[in-house]
Specification:
It contains four helices and four strands, in the order H-E-H-E-H-E-E-H. It is α+β, with helices and mostly antiparallel strands and 100 residues long. It has a single domain, classed as Glutaredoxin.
């Protein structure tokens, strides 16, 4: 059975959601940053990518107006949000504030 978006974000711990589009340059730039973040934080965080063109309903539900938009959830609650690409160190610093 496939996990739904709501299953994933209501799971335990931190979930970082990257709303992106395949045609978006800054989104492409975020990809290696997210990979590096996952390497640094390992099991402390789950990172999922949501293509807004394929998942319009989810993008609409979260009022995604620009890509990339990053949303951070902890135990189902949205705790942080930012639109636009972020350098790895800035993103890691934000995430670490929410690590329990």
């Amino acid at each position: 059975m496939m996990e739904t978006f709501n299953d994933v974000i209501s799971g335990e711990g931190l979930v970082l959601v990257d709303f992106f589009a395949t045609w978006c340059g800054p989104c492409k730039a975020m990809h290696p940053i997210l990979e590096a973040l996952k390497e640094r934080l390992g099991k402390q965080i789950r990172i999922i990518k949501i293509d807004i063109d394929r998942n319009g309903a989810v993008a609409e539900q979260y009022d995604i107006r620009a890509v990339p938009t990053l949303l951070l959830f902890r135990n189902g609650q949205q705790v942080w949000r930012q639109s636009g690409a972020l350098p790895l160190n800035n993103l890691e610093a934000v995430i670490k504030q929410y690590l329990e």
